[in-house]
Amino acid sequence: MRRHNLALVLREVVRAEPVSRAAIAGRTGLTRGTVSSLVEELLDAGLLDELAAERGAPGRPASPLQLNRSGPAGLGIEIEVDHVAACVVDLTGAVRAIARLASDHRDRDPALALARVAELARAVRAEAALPVVGAVVAVPGVVGADGVVVRAPNLPRWSGADVGPLLTPLLGGLPVTTANEADLAALAELWFADGPPDAMYVSGGVGVGAGIVLGGRLFRGAGGRAGELGHVVVDADGPACRCGGRGCLEQTAGLEALLRAAGAADLDALPDAPRAAAALDGAAAALGVALAGAVNLLDVPVVVLGGIYSRLGAAWCDDVHARLCERVVHRSDVAVRLSTLAPGGALRAAAASVVRARLRSP
Amino acid sequence: MRRHNLALVLREVVRAEPVSRAAIAGRTGLTRGTVSSLVEELLDAGLLDELAAERGAPGRPASPLQLNRSGPAGLGIEIEVDHVAACVVDLTGAVRAIARLASDHRDRDPALALARVAELARAVRAEAALPVVGAVVAVPGVVGADGVVVRAPNLPRWSGADVGPLLTPLLGGLPVTTANEADLAALAELWFADGPPDAMYVSGGVGVGAGIVLGGRLFRGAGGRAGELGHVVVDADGPACRCGGRGCLEQTAGLEALLRAAGAADLDALPDAPRAAAALDGAAAALGVALAGAVNLLDVPVVVLGGIYSRLGAAWCDDVHARLCERVVHRSDVAVRLSTLAPGGALRAAAASVVRARLRSP
What we know:
The structure is a homodimer.
Chain A: H1 2-16, H2 21-28, H3 32-44, E1 48-50, E2 65-67, E3 73-79, E4 83-89, E5 95-102, H4 110-128, E6 132-139, E7 142-143, E8 149-151, H5 163-167, E9 176-180, H6 181-192, E10 199-204, E11 208-214, E12 217-219, H7 250-253, H8 255-262, H9 276-298, E13 302-307, H10 314-325, E14 335-338, H11 345-360
Parallel strand pairs in A: 3-6, 6-9, 10-13, 13-14
Antiparallel strand pairs in A: 1-2, 3-4, 4-5, 7-8, 10-11, 11-12
Helix pairs in contact in A: 1-3, 2-3, 6-11, 8-9, 9-10
């Protein structure tokens, strides 16, 4: 009960900091005495911080409360096909240190990436100088309910990797959780971009994944592996896919397929590539088919296109929307928009999930 | 609190009737005095029934409790393209009266079907002679969160129909709720066939719909319109569909498409039709594509094929499973089976949802 009330007080501070003890009592229905005692405990635990008392108001001066910017912090780690990154956020979710390192892992042993990650983590922790209490690792693969990487088609040597136990010793014993990159990016939209409570976030890259948020919570499916949008079939007789199927969305709208179709070496060269328009049109059509399936099945009202898709422009996004509307049953009720978060959304959400968990169960 | 405890007592009776007051106290942690007083209230409300006391045991004879077979009952109603049906279930969910009437509604005004439904309802209520407290209507269309039929492609004149207010006056003022047929059939699998807590039920007919159960609860999506499996695209350039799209699953695996492809007049004639094998194979392949998309997105471990599909045989079901496995990422973890419930599953679940709601909030 006391734990529940501690979380209740923290929730009020998160909602409208700085806030007085009296306001918290008013909003939670707890007595002022109870609130004072809970606040005392949260101050001792380093979760809250007291601002200077406001003078001038009648009566005893009140010291407003806010989250402690020097309190428990979260470490976020991102392992991608071509880079690793790390960041530290404070209790408010603000990024206090961030670092990124180009590093190709496609056919390398996970140990290499983990050593680099550990190095980056040391650097950002030193820079932030905050008490980091846990880490969440974003990986571009399917993560089972037990935290093991079930499949990472673009990082084949990571299949079966149990990142937590491998990484914890390299991070001085820090508890580590592993999560899917698209899932974290979906939470980033919700947390940092005022995203709607029901939405599908599409992470475009070499692979294409989706993070599904329903009722303000991540939807992970019975086995924790929901959101495999990249392997929804868009052309039953299409090209073979790494997953063993054929004609999957990734084979038309994944980064490599897109560049190949356009005749471009990389994303920067795409606008000037000889077949850019046709390739972008093909990707939009394929996304329209796959997204229509997803919207028909899940009835999500908003689709957010992120990763490489966020760089393809508003006109292309409108094209995806039009293609989707040709196929979806409730066409008047579905919006498609580009992610406005920087590519680091998943990384920041990884770090923020650590502190959010701490605030939920202090 | 008392309401909560009343529900708690009922839950224990449902779990293991007949059951003694002492056993209920033991399992709920409530005192024997509290249980006795709650049971008294439930006996008065007609929800519980006392069996004859068991003699022979030492001490005061105990009168075991069970759900009252003459207590509040539920009316289920089914409106289909080619028939209407009604049934009454008692508090245990047992069917106490059932009736079905062939009646084509495809291009008819809803008023006709509702008049027939009201007639059937009168007949089953008279036969069951139980105090019916509410009705749930299963319709083969999408039902919005407000209970209005949003779309019913095969009953075009039902779009926008608010069945509750239309039907209540015809049923003597009985409260009426409307629900999607596939959703109710999915609950029927869960409730009456020991179905798994995470599954997708596919209702094959003129239209193809899915009822999705996640964590033992119906998943309805943000707008209550999830599960439009029939309009998942299986052939991007395929035939135009009533929904406005093209190449939807229904256009290959819906009843009419299947019969047309086989050259059969109806389902009974299918086995002897000139092109039966090719048509069934095409339907299995199309279902494989659409179901793979659904399983990739939702990560449901079990697919139950019902409606007309339950009549197509085990070998055909295996074929669907094989086609699905060609396309799904986590192929080792997905099972496909035919529904073992009679076609009346949705009807019975409709009636049962009335009494289940009463038992949850007595």
